[in-house]
Amino acid sequence: MSASTTAPARDRLRIAIQKSGRLADPARSLLAACGLSWRQSRDKLFCFGESLPVDLLLVRDDDIPGLIADGVCDLGVVGLNELDEQAKARRQIGLADAYQPLRGLGFGSCRLMIAVPEEWDWQGVQMLQGKRIATSYPAILAAWLKEKGVDAQVVELSGSVEIAPKLGTAELICDLVSSGATLAANQLKPVETLLESEAVLAGPVNELDDARAGLMAMLLRRLDGLSKTQDQKLLMFSAAEESVDALARLLPDAEPLLRLPGAGGAVRLQTMCNGALSWQRLEELERAGAQGLMVLAVEKSLV
Ligand code: PRT
Ligand code: ZN
Protein backbone atom coordinates (compact mmCIF):
# COMPACT_ATOMS: atom_id res chain seq x y z
CA MET A 1 0.00 0.00 0.00
CA SER A 2 1.27 3.50 -0.70
CA ALA A 3 2.57 5.90 1.90
CA SER A 4 -0.05 8.50 1.04
CA THR A 5 -2.89 6.18 2.06
CA THR A 6 -1.32 4.82 5.25
CA ALA A 7 0.87 7.52 6.77
CA PRO A 8 -0.51 10.44 8.78
CA ALA A 9 -0.13 13.91 7.18
CA ARG A 10 3.46 15.10 7.45
CA ASP A 11 4.83 18.56 6.95
CA ARG A 12 8.53 17.71 6.59
CA LEU A 13 10.01 16.08 3.50
CA ARG A 14 12.50 13.27 4.06
CA ILE A 15 15.18 12.42 1.49
CA ALA A 16 17.34 9.28 1.65
CA ILE A 17 20.88 9.56 0.33
CA GLN A 18 23.87 7.23 0.47
CA LYS A 19 25.76 7.53 3.77
CA SER A 20 29.12 6.86 2.16
CA GLY A 21 30.13 5.72 -1.29
CA ARG A 22 30.18 7.06 -4.81
CA LEU A 23 26.89 8.95 -4.65
CA ALA A 24 27.16 10.39 -1.12
CA ASP A 25 29.08 13.64 -1.74
CA PRO A 26 27.55 14.59 -5.10
CA ALA A 27 24.03 13.97 -3.72
CA ARG A 28 24.66 16.21 -0.72
CA SER A 29 26.27 18.93 -2.85
CA LEU A 30 23.38 18.92 -5.31
CA LEU A 31 20.78 19.23 -2.55
CA ALA A 32 22.83 22.01 -0.93
CA ALA A 33 22.90 23.80 -4.31
CA CYS A 34 19.08 23.59 -4.19
CA GLY A 35 19.20 25.73 -1.05
CA LEU A 36 18.95 22.99 1.57
CA SER A 37 21.07 22.96 4.71
CA TRP A 38 21.05 20.65 7.70
CA ARG A 39 21.99 20.41 11.31
CA GLN A 40 24.06 17.21 11.58
CA SER A 41 22.79 14.96 14.33
CA ARG A 42 25.31 13.21 16.58
CA ASP A 43 24.61 9.74 15.18
CA LYS A 44 24.90 11.21 11.67
CA LEU A 45 22.15 9.03 10.22
CA PHE A 46 19.53 11.74 10.36
CA CYS A 47 20.20 15.35 9.38
CA PHE A 48 17.55 17.85 10.43
CA GLY A 49 16.75 20.40 7.71
CA GLU A 50 17.41 23.97 8.83
CA SER A 51 16.77 26.23 5.84
CA LEU A 52 13.65 24.27 4.85
CA PRO A 53 11.66 21.43 6.42
CA VAL A 54 13.58 18.87 4.36
CA ASP A 55 15.48 16.23 6.37
CA LEU A 56 18.10 13.74 5.20
CA LEU A 57 18.40 10.10 6.09
CA LEU A 58 21.87 8.65 5.45
CA VAL A 59 21.66 5.00 4.48
CA ARG A 60 23.09 2.25 2.25
CA ASP A 61 22.09 2.77 -1.38
CA ASP A 62 20.43 -0.68 -1.51
CA ASP A 63 17.94 0.42 1.17
CA ILE A 64 16.75 3.56 -0.63
CA PRO A 65 14.05 2.06 -2.92
CA GLY A 66 12.55 0.12 0.01
CA LEU A 67 12.49 3.21 2.22
CA ILE A 68 10.48 5.03 -0.45
CA ALA A 69 8.19 2.02 -0.96
CA ASP A 70 7.50 1.86 2.78
CA GLY A 71 6.86 5.61 3.02
CA VAL A 72 9.75 6.09 5.47
CA CYS A 73 11.32 8.52 2.99
CA ASP A 74 9.61 10.60 0.33
CA LEU A 75 12.55 10.88 -2.06
CA GLY A 76 15.92 9.24 -2.55
CA VAL A 77 19.09 9.73 -4.54
CA VAL A 78 20.04 6.33 -5.93
CA GLY A 79 21.57 4.73 -8.99
CA LEU A 80 19.04 3.87 -11.70
CA ASN A 81 20.65 0.41 -11.68
CA GLU A 82 19.62 -0.18 -8.06
CA LEU A 83 16.16 1.32 -8.53
CA ASP A 84 15.48 -0.71 -11.67
CA GLU A 85 16.77 -3.94 -10.10
CA GLN A 86 14.51 -3.60 -7.09
CA ALA A 87 11.53 -2.51 -9.21
CA LYS A 88 11.92 -5.60 -11.43
CA ALA A 89 12.38 -7.85 -8.38
CA ARG A 90 9.10 -6.49 -6.94
CA ARG A 91 7.29 -7.13 -10.20
CA GLN A 92 8.64 -10.68 -10.38
CA ILE A 93 6.91 -11.48 -7.07
CA GLY A 94 3.71 -9.70 -8.05
CA LEU A 95 4.13 -6.47 -6.06
CA ALA A 96 2.88 -3.18 -7.52
CA ASP A 97 5.34 -0.45 -8.53
CA ALA A 98 6.11 1.74 -5.52
CA TYR A 99 8.73 4.22 -6.79
CA GLN A 100 9.88 5.83 -9.98
CA PRO A 101 12.81 7.92 -11.22
CA LEU A 102 11.78 11.59 -11.25
CA ARG A 103 14.95 13.26 -12.55
CA GLY A 104 18.32 12.15 -13.87
CA LEU A 105 21.01 13.93 -11.84
CA GLY A 106 23.99 13.79 -14.20
CA PHE A 107 26.46 11.99 -11.91
CA GLY A 108 27.24 8.36 -11.00
CA SER A 109 27.13 7.40 -14.67
CA CYS A 110 27.93 3.77 -15.50
CA ARG A 111 26.64 0.90 -17.60
CA LEU A 112 25.36 -2.50 -16.58
CA MET A 113 27.15 -4.80 -19.02
CA ILE A 114 27.75 -8.40 -19.94
CA ALA A 115 31.49 -9.10 -19.84
CA VAL A 116 33.16 -12.26 -21.11
CA PRO A 117 36.72 -13.62 -20.92
CA GLU A 118 38.99 -11.68 -23.28
CA GLU A 119 39.76 -14.74 -25.37
CA TRP A 120 36.11 -15.27 -26.35
CA ASP A 121 35.36 -14.44 -29.97
CA TRP A 122 32.07 -12.61 -29.32
CA GLN A 123 29.44 -13.58 -31.89
CA GLY A 124 26.30 -12.30 -30.14
CA VAL A 125 23.87 -13.08 -27.34
CA GLN A 126 23.24 -16.65 -28.52
CA MET A 127 26.70 -17.43 -27.08
CA LEU A 128 25.14 -17.03 -23.61
CA GLN A 129 22.85 -20.04 -24.08
CA GLY A 130 23.36 -22.57 -21.26
CA LYS A 131 26.07 -20.47 -19.57
CA ARG A 132 26.32 -19.36 -15.92
CA ILE A 133 26.38 -15.57 -15.48
CA ALA A 134 27.46 -14.03 -12.15
CA THR A 135 25.78 -10.77 -11.17
CA SER A 136 24.49 -8.56 -8.36
CA TYR A 137 21.57 -7.60 -10.65
CA PRO A 138 19.65 -10.87 -11.04
CA ALA A 139 16.25 -9.32 -11.82
CA ILE A 140 17.54 -7.02 -14.58
CA LEU A 141 19.64 -9.82 -16.04
CA ALA A 142 16.78 -12.35 -15.95
CA ALA A 143 14.44 -9.89 -17.68
CA TRP A 144 17.06 -9.10 -20.34
CA LEU A 145 17.82 -12.79 -21.01
CA LYS A 146 14.09 -13.47 -21.36
CA GLU A 147 13.71 -10.59 -23.81
CA LYS A 148 16.64 -11.96 -25.86
CA GLY A 149 15.20 -15.50 -25.76
CA VAL A 150 18.34 -16.87 -24.10
CA ASP A 151 18.24 -19.64 -21.50
CA ALA A 152 21.16 -19.09 -19.11
CA GLN A 153 21.74 -19.59 -15.38
CA VAL A 154 21.86 -16.45 -13.24
CA VAL A 155 24.35 -16.80 -10.37
CA GLU A 156 23.62 -14.10 -7.78
CA LEU A 157 26.66 -12.66 -5.97
CA SER A 158 26.63 -9.64 -3.67
CA GLY A 159 30.18 -8.50 -4.50
CA SER A 160 33.46 -9.29 -6.27
CA VAL A 161 31.49 -10.41 -9.28
CA GLU A 162 34.45 -9.90 -11.61
CA ILE A 163 36.46 -12.75 -10.13
CA ALA A 164 33.66 -15.33 -10.61
CA PRO A 165 35.04 -16.62 -13.96
CA LYS A 166 38.48 -17.19 -12.39
CA LEU A 167 36.90 -18.98 -9.42
CA GLY A 168 34.82 -21.14 -11.76
CA THR A 169 31.47 -20.09 -10.25
CA ALA A 170 30.36 -18.69 -13.62
CA GLU A 171 31.69 -18.47 -17.18
CA LEU A 172 30.96 -14.74 -17.49
CA ILE A 173 29.55 -11.79 -15.58
CA CYS A 174 27.01 -8.98 -15.71
CA ASP A 175 28.26 -5.96 -13.73
CA LEU A 176 28.56 -2.19 -13.62
CA VAL A 177 31.33 -0.68 -15.72
CA SER A 178 32.56 2.90 -15.74
CA SER A 179 36.21 3.17 -16.84
CA GLY A 180 36.50 -0.51 -17.74
CA ALA A 181 39.70 -0.87 -15.69
CA THR A 182 38.25 -3.52 -13.35
CA LEU A 183 37.21 -5.71 -16.28
CA ALA A 184 40.61 -5.33 -17.95
CA ALA A 185 42.40 -6.19 -14.68
CA ASN A 186 40.42 -9.43 -14.59
CA GLN A 187 40.97 -10.31 -18.27
CA LEU A 188 37.33 -9.66 -19.14
CA LYS A 189 35.84 -7.56 -21.95
CA PRO A 190 32.44 -5.84 -22.14
CA VAL A 191 30.20 -7.05 -24.96
CA GLU A 192 26.56 -6.06 -24.32
CA THR A 193 24.89 -3.16 -22.46
CA LEU A 194 21.76 -3.93 -20.43
CA LEU A 195 21.29 -0.49 -18.86
CA GLU A 196 22.76 3.02 -19.10
CA SER A 197 22.67 4.24 -15.51
CA GLU A 198 23.18 7.44 -13.56
CA ALA A 199 22.10 8.73 -10.16
CA VAL A 200 18.43 9.67 -10.14
CA LEU A 201 16.08 11.40 -7.77
CA ALA A 202 13.49 8.73 -7.05
CA GLY A 203 10.05 9.33 -5.61
CA PRO A 204 6.81 7.48 -4.96
CA VAL A 205 4.43 6.56 -7.79
CA ASN A 206 1.52 8.04 -5.85
CA GLU A 207 1.43 11.80 -5.37
CA LEU A 208 1.77 13.13 -1.85
CA ASP A 209 -1.34 14.84 -0.56
CA ASP A 210 -0.06 16.97 2.31
CA ALA A 211 2.46 19.80 2.84
CA ARG A 212 5.24 17.61 1.46
CA ALA A 213 3.77 17.86 -2.07
CA GLY A 214 4.58 21.58 -2.19
CA LEU A 215 8.08 20.99 -0.86
CA MET A 216 8.68 18.28 -3.45
CA ALA A 217 7.45 20.51 -6.28
CA MET A 218 9.73 23.31 -5.10
CA LEU A 219 12.73 21.00 -4.93
CA LEU A 220 12.07 19.62 -8.44
CA ARG A 221 11.75 23.16 -9.80
CA ARG A 222 15.06 24.14 -8.23
CA LEU A 223 16.73 21.00 -9.61
CA ASP A 224 15.40 21.83 -13.08
CA GLY A 225 16.67 25.39 -12.65
CA LEU A 226 20.12 24.03 -11.88
CA SER A 227 20.26 21.53 -14.71
CA LYS A 228 18.97 24.05 -17.24
CA THR A 229 21.68 26.54 -16.35
CA GLN A 230 24.48 23.98 -16.06
CA ASP A 231 26.00 24.78 -19.47
CA GLN A 232 24.64 28.29 -19.86
CA LYS A 233 26.87 31.32 -20.08
CA LEU A 234 25.89 34.96 -20.15
CA LEU A 235 27.95 36.79 -22.77
CA MET A 236 28.23 40.59 -22.37
CA PHE A 237 30.04 43.12 -24.52
CA SER A 238 29.65 46.51 -26.13
CA ALA A 239 30.01 47.55 -29.77
CA ALA A 240 29.40 50.38 -32.21
CA GLU A 241 25.92 50.30 -33.76
CA GLU A 242 27.27 49.48 -37.24
CA SER A 243 29.04 46.29 -35.97
CA VAL A 244 26.00 44.75 -34.26
CA ASP A 245 24.62 42.82 -37.26
CA ALA A 246 28.00 41.27 -38.07
CA LEU A 247 28.46 40.29 -34.42
CA ALA A 248 24.98 38.71 -34.30
CA ARG A 249 25.92 36.60 -37.34
CA LEU A 250 28.93 35.27 -35.41
CA LEU A 251 26.61 34.04 -32.65
CA PRO A 252 24.07 31.89 -34.56
CA ASP A 253 23.67 29.43 -31.66
CA ALA A 254 22.98 32.11 -29.03
CA GLU A 255 19.69 33.75 -28.08
CA PRO A 256 18.92 36.99 -29.99
CA LEU A 257 21.15 39.83 -28.75
CA LEU A 258 19.59 42.02 -26.07
CA ARG A 259 20.47 45.71 -26.64
CA LEU A 260 20.96 48.11 -23.76
CA PRO A 261 21.96 51.74 -24.03
CA GLY A 262 25.74 52.21 -23.73
CA ALA A 263 28.07 55.14 -23.27
CA GLY A 264 29.46 57.31 -26.12
CA GLY A 265 27.21 56.00 -28.90
CA ALA A 266 28.14 52.36 -28.24
CA VAL A 267 25.48 49.71 -27.61
CA ARG A 268 25.71 47.27 -24.66
CA LEU A 269 24.80 43.78 -25.76
CA GLN A 270 24.10 40.57 -23.93
CA THR A 271 22.98 37.06 -24.78
CA MET A 272 22.76 33.54 -23.34
CA CYS A 273 24.95 30.87 -24.90
CA ASN A 274 24.93 27.12 -24.36
CA GLY A 275 28.24 25.33 -23.88
CA ALA A 276 31.76 26.66 -23.81
CA LEU A 277 32.77 29.95 -25.40
CA SER A 278 36.37 29.39 -26.41
CA TRP A 279 39.07 32.09 -26.30
CA GLN A 280 39.26 31.75 -30.07
CA ARG A 281 35.58 32.57 -30.41
CA LEU A 282 35.92 35.64 -28.15
CA GLU A 283 38.92 36.88 -30.17
CA GLU A 284 36.90 36.45 -33.36
CA LEU A 285 34.11 38.58 -31.84
CA GLU A 286 36.69 41.16 -30.78
CA ARG A 287 38.05 41.40 -34.34
CA ALA A 288 34.47 42.00 -35.51
CA GLY A 289 34.13 44.98 -33.17
CA ALA A 290 33.10 43.62 -29.78
CA GLN A 291 34.67 45.39 -26.81
CA GLY A 292 34.90 44.53 -23.11
CA LEU A 293 33.80 40.92 -23.67
CA MET A 294 32.74 39.14 -20.50
CA VAL A 295 31.52 35.55 -20.06
CA LEU A 296 29.62 34.82 -16.85
CA ALA A 297 28.55 31.37 -15.61
CA VAL A 298 24.84 31.18 -14.80
CA GLU A 299 24.28 29.85 -11.31
CA LYS A 300 20.51 29.51 -10.95
CA SER A 301 17.33 30.20 -12.87
CA LEU A 302 13.62 29.98 -12.21
CA VAL A 303 11.73 29.64 -15.44
O1 PRT B 1 27.57 0.93 1.11
P1 PRT B 1 26.59 1.04 -0.01
O2 PRT B 1 25.76 -0.21 -0.20
O3 PRT B 1 25.76 2.30 0.11
O4 PRT B 1 27.47 1.27 -1.34
P2 PRT B 1 27.81 0.33 -2.57
O5 PRT B 1 29.17 -0.23 -2.36
O6 PRT B 1 26.70 -0.63 -2.87
O7 PRT B 1 27.77 1.38 -3.73
P3 PRT B 1 28.89 2.26 -4.45
O8 PRT B 1 29.16 3.48 -3.63
O9 PRT B 1 30.05 1.42 -4.90
O10 PRT B 1 28.07 2.65 -5.76
C1 PRT B 1 26.89 3.40 -5.66
C2 PRT B 1 26.36 3.62 -7.06
O11 PRT B 1 27.35 4.28 -7.86
C3 PRT B 1 26.03 2.39 -7.89
O12 PRT B 1 24.78 1.80 -7.54
C4 PRT B 1 26.01 2.96 -9.29
O13 PRT B 1 24.77 3.58 -9.55
C5 PRT B 1 27.09 4.06 -9.24
N1 PRT B 1 28.34 3.67 -9.91
C6 PRT B 1 28.94 4.41 -10.89
C7 PRT B 1 29.10 2.58 -9.71
C8 PRT B 1 30.18 2.66 -10.60
N2 PRT B 1 30.06 3.81 -11.31
C9 PRT B 1 31.18 1.62 -10.60
N3 PRT B 1 32.11 1.69 -11.38
N4 PRT B 1 28.99 1.56 -8.84
C10 PRT B 1 29.93 0.60 -8.84
N5 PRT B 1 30.99 0.58 -9.68
C11 PRT B 1 31.94 -0.56 -9.52
C12 PRT B 1 31.55 -1.79 -10.36
O14 PRT B 1 30.63 -2.59 -9.67
C13 PRT B 1 32.90 -2.48 -10.56
O15 PRT B 1 33.25 -3.23 -9.42
O16 PRT B 1 33.24 -0.21 -9.94
C14 PRT B 1 33.85 -1.31 -10.64
C15 PRT B 1 34.03 -0.96 -12.09
O17 PRT B 1 34.58 0.31 -12.26
P4 PRT B 1 35.58 0.60 -13.46
O18 PRT B 1 35.83 2.07 -13.41
O19 PRT B 1 36.83 -0.20 -13.20
O20 PRT B 1 34.89 0.17 -14.74
ZN1 ZN C 1 25.03 -0.94 -1.94
Automatic annotation (TrEMBL):
Keywords: Amino-acid biosynthesis, ATP-binding, Cytoplasm, Glycosyltransferase, Histidine biosynthesis, Magnesium, Metal-binding, Nucleotide-binding, Transferase. Catalyzes the condensation of ATP and 5-phosphoribose 1-diphosphate to form N'-(5'-phosphoribosyl)-ATP (PR-ATP). Has a crucial role in the pathway because the rate of histidine biosynthesis seems to be controlled primarily by regulation of HisG enzymatic activity. This is ATP phosphoribosyltransferase. Residues 60-224 form the ATP phosphoribosyltransferase catalytic domain. It comes from the Bacteria. It is an enzyme of class 2 (transferase). Its EC number is 2.4.2.17. Feedback inhibited by histidine. Its cofactor is Mg(2+). GO terms for cellular component: cytoplasm. Pathway: Amino-acid biosynthesis; L-histidine biosynthesis; L-histidine from 5-phospho-alpha-D-ribose 1-diphosphate: step 1/9. It is found in: Cytoplasm. The gene is hisG. GO terms for biological process: L-histidine biosynthetic process. It catalyses: 1-(5-phospho-beta-D-ribosyl)-ATP + diphosphate = 5-phospho-alpha-D-ribose 1-diphosphate + ATP. PROSITE patterns: ATP_P_PHORIBOSYLTR. Belongs to the ATP phosphoribosyltransferase family. Long subfamily. One of its GO terms (molecular function) is magnesium ion binding. It comes from Stenotrophomonas humi.
